[in-house]
Amino acid sequence: MSGEALTKADREIIADIWTSEAAYENLVTLCDDYGSRFGGTPGERLAVEFMANRLREYGVDSVTVEAFPYQGWVRGTARLESVQPTAASFDCIGLPYCGTADIQGDLVFLGHGAPEDYAKKRGQIKGNLVMVSTQSPAQVRRPMHRMEKYGRALEAGAAGFIWMREEPGLLPETGSIRFNAEAEIPGVGVSREVGAALQRLAKKGPVRLRMVTGNVNQPMTSWNVVGEIRGHTYPDRYLVIGAHFDGHDLSQGALDDGAGAVVTMEACRALAKHKDLLPKSIRFILFPVEEIGLIGSHAYVDAHLAEMKNCEFMLNLDGAGRPGDTNLVLQGFGELQDVFESMCREMKHPLTVTNRISTYSDMYPFVLEGVPAATMMSVSGGPRSGRGWGHTAADTLDKVSPRALQMDALTTARMALRLCNLTENWPAPHKSRAQIRELLEAEGLLEVLKFERRYAFEK
Q1: Where residue 66 falls among pLDDT bands split at 50, 70, 90?
Q2: Could you tell me what percentage of the chain is helix, strand and coil, using 3-state DSSP and rounding each to the nearest 5?
Q3: Which of 102, 134, 170, 351 is most buried as measured by Cβ atoms within 10 A of its Cβ?
């Protein structure tokens, strides 16, 4: 593509998205009409139909809705009570994949739950209820996910798990404690304020707690929504641009990740008008049930394994469209850093480009198959600032900035246009499974994957 044609298309894309309300209107529909879109809810299926129809309206070459089975979860009841030193009840919520249980045990608070905290209190943990904060420990150079903390508690012999939100506001924080599988021990979420009350109670002596949960784990079906623009010269070579559309069941999931879903759709809408400038294909994928195990993206990759060798790049938009600065995080493919930094300079739209592999969003199943990938996200606050409104009942539409949706959509479309036109000497070949394992090992994540029961490599 000539420089003149690129400049013309670039300006048309910017003007189109910057003057369109489509992204925000789509998000209003997803949130107000279909609720959380959590796996197994009526709103999930309605959202699938809505998004598929929208992509058809945008003029993509094909739209498919791909069904797959998985282990679903339905929220029931959850109670947390102190038995001693005094009788009291505490507000809590069940965490996804927690089943049915009625247990008692002493409270063992591990603060931020660094690995050494589990080792130091191993004797106290066995048979009791571990409470940890949502914040990652300062002494650990990588983020510590909820599932890792749960897995370490389970390995140490805990009978139950309490996930204490670090940020104030009487908001318990949800999140799955297993991926696509029933949890071995029950887990509940509590607000910062409830966690603080339990800590104060512990100053009077040992705290004996009763945890009662009644949730349902059962087989379900969900659906990936895939819209494809076929490349005019190399149709079998393709990029993937995707985001998950489900939120957690107790909120609208507007920021996490309805925003990312509509940014994906808006980039698709704009690029579909410029098919003649796309030598390679682009698949726009809206993934379900990410929140309980990256299940949609794993299902997609498993169903399309034979085609993965032709997937040149996967851009994950989980976290895009939120207020804050936009960052691009390469997933262990540092050879792409210069490519994206040069691209951003050319677009006169600086992004912070870093390189660090992660396992907690929909790019990971692609990375496992060696596909070069990155996540684009908007962040505010420091690296340990927590989820903000995410995973709480307060993740609602009023927190969304329509301008942030537009900005990240036009950035996505402009980058995709350029990536599609890199037809020779693609700088990032696929990596082998052994090379991906080495990247994960360098980040200290192989041990973590074992605690999370997600280890995908030969023993």
Answers
A1: very high
A2: 40, 25, 35
A3: 134
Are the beta carbons of 278 and 231 closer than 8 angstroms? Answer: yes
Report pLDDT digits (tens) over 116-128: 999 999 999 999 9
Question: What is the tens place of the pLDDT at every residue in 84-109?
Answer: 999 999 999 999 999 999 999 999 99
Indicate the domain borders of the chain. 3-61+230-451, 76-215
Question: Which amino acid does the sequence have at 145?
Answer: H
Query: For position 383, what pLDDT does the model report?
Result: 44
Q: What span, in angstroms and rounded, lies between the C-alpha atoms of 311 and 386?
A: 33
User: Which of 284, 282, 315, 297 has the alpha carbon at shortest distance from 246?
Assistant: 297
* Kind of pairing between the strands at 62-84 and 208-229: antiparallel
Question: Is it true that 3-61+230-451 and 76-215 share their CATH fold?
Answer: no
- In 179-233 the beta strands, taken as DSSP E runs, fall at 187-190, 208-229
Q: Are 364 and 448 in contact (CB under 8 A)?
A: no
pLDDT (0 to 100) of residue 377: 93
Dig out the tokens for 17 from the structure.
């998205």
Integer Rg of the chain from CA: 22
Contacts of 120 (CB under 8 A, 6+ apart): none
pLDDT for 180-231, tens place per residue? Answer: 999 999 999 999 999 999 999 999 999 999 999 999 999 999 999 999 999 9
Distance CA 384, CA 339 (A): 28
Q: H-type helices in 348-401, by residue range? A: 364-368
Q: Which two tokens stand for residue 76?
A: 């029931």
- The CATH classification number of 76-215 equals 3.50.30.30
Q: Which of 185, 186, 217, 216 minimizes the C-alpha distance to 92? A: 186
**Residues 379-414 pLDDT 10s:** 765 444 568 899 999 999 999 999 999 999 999 999
Residue 182 and residue 71 in contact, taking contact as beta carbons nearer than 8 Å: yes
Whole-angstrom Cα distance, residue 217 to residue 36? 19
Helix (H, G, I), strand (E, B) or coil at 439: helix
Amino acid identity, position 345: R
**Residue 308: strand pairing partners:** none
348: confidence class by pLDDT, cuts 50, 70, 90: very high
| DSSP bridge partners of 81 | 89, 210
Query: What is the homologous superfamily of the domain 3-61+230-451 according to CATH?
Result: Zn peptidases (3.40.630.10)
20 CB-near residues (< 8 Å, 6+ apart): 266, 269, 406
Question: Is the CB of residue 133 less than 8 Å from the CB of residue 158?
Answer: no
DSSP string for 96-113: TT--EEEEEEEEEE-TT-
